[in-house]
Amino acid sequence: MTAMSSGYAKLAHLSGDEFRARLPEALSLYVAAMNYPEGTAEQRAPMWLTHALRDGWRCVAALDTDDRLVGLAYGYRGTPGQWWHEQVRRGLAGREGDQAADAWLGDYFELTEIHVRPSSQGRGTGENLLRTLVDGVRHRHVLLSTPEGTSRAWKLYRRLGFTDVLRDYHFAGDPRPFAILGRTLPLE
């Protein structure tokens, strides 16, 4: 599949400065991809800026011929003390025990965000973003959370070998059930 048939012209690794410069565009893409209400972007902006400062942070963008974002994926090394790590550890240890939590959370890359514009979904962009993002990551696992329910994202994660780590989990402050999915690295 060529890049153009995937709905983008090129993939690019973004530096922290490039990510910050594109933050409004990235958050607009996020709101559109997730079908979130207006105002969500303003709430997420400080968090995304903080994420870009974390150890091991990396970001990949899918860009069209006019250099506009079609898709975006980023993540970083997960560590104790981070909100997501602590939430998942509590849930996993509570259901499966400390040993299971240690096995998954001892050395992992957190796939924090991956989004594709709705008009470009279903053409391989998400898979190319994910593969490019984790290529060369030197951690044992990659972990992510996604809302429960059938979606293109679910199909992508399953096709790439992600398995259940924790299902029907409720993060503090969000009434929706989430699945924590993971797999060993590298991807084939």
TrEMBL record:
Domain of life where this protein originates: Bacteria
InterPro entries cross-referenced by the UniProt entry: Acyl_CoA_acyltransferase, GNAT_dom
Entry-linked Gene3D superfamilies: 3.40.630.30
Residue ranges occupied by any N-acetyltransferase domain in the UniProt entry: 17-186
Stated name of the protein: GNAT family N-acetyltransferase
Lineage: Bacteria, Bacillati, Actinomycetota, Actinomycetes, Pseudonocardiales
